[in-house]
Every structure is written in C-alpha cells, then in structure tokens.
Design a protein that fits this description.
Distance between the termini: 12 Å
Structural class: mainly alpha
Amino acid sequence: MTSIEIRVRDLYEDLNVSEKKAATFFLNYVDSVFAMPIAQLAKQADTTQVAWVRLCKRIGSVSYTHLRAHE
C-alpha cells in the first residue's frame, strides 16, 4: 500500500460525498488512476473534477497534476 493510499484511507470518513466518490474510485483503481486525465476520472467516478482537486488537496497535494508527478 502506498503512502497516498494510506492518506486517503485515513481521511475517508472526513470527506464529503463527492470526495468520497473520488476516494472510493481511487482506492478501487489505484493501479490505473494516474494514467487517466482528471476529466476521465471525474466521469468514471460519477463526480466532478473539483471533487478530485479537493481530494488531492485534502491528502496534501496542491493539484492532481502535482499528485501524479509524485505518485
């Protein structure tokens, strides 16, 4: 398990509904998440790009792009 996965799991209960959708998708598809653009993640997770950005910030990254670069 990666440090990012651990952070997502630790914060999960404190996330709002849309962030939880993103987090659930992330945890279920962690091996392929970083290969997808954020628009595709939002569509497949049935949430918004903003929810993904908020999730990234909640786990300590400034953006999804930044998180992808440091996976």
